[in-house]
Fold:
Amino acid sequence: MTASRYRCAACGNLTRFDVTTSRRSRAYHHYTVGGELQIEDLEVLSEVVEEVSCRWCGSGASVREVSAEDAAALESSDGAEPGTPPS
Structure:
């Protein structure tokens, strides 16, 4: 699965978001002789993004999914360091 990129239309944020997801997965659980669990061969069967909100301004309604190419173009065109909040 490819990670989504987001942009907040309210403040321009491209780097900081709170993302709530639900995942269904299958994994091999291997317990050591000492009883410690080691999870191996984790496979994500499905994943649903339930909510995305901007960490800078708190908006959820203004967050949009963008392509990786569009996000890279926006980061290079704004002149600010990536991850810097707008002034």
Observations:
- Residues 5-77 form one domain.
- The CA atoms of residues 2 and 68 lie 10 Å apart.
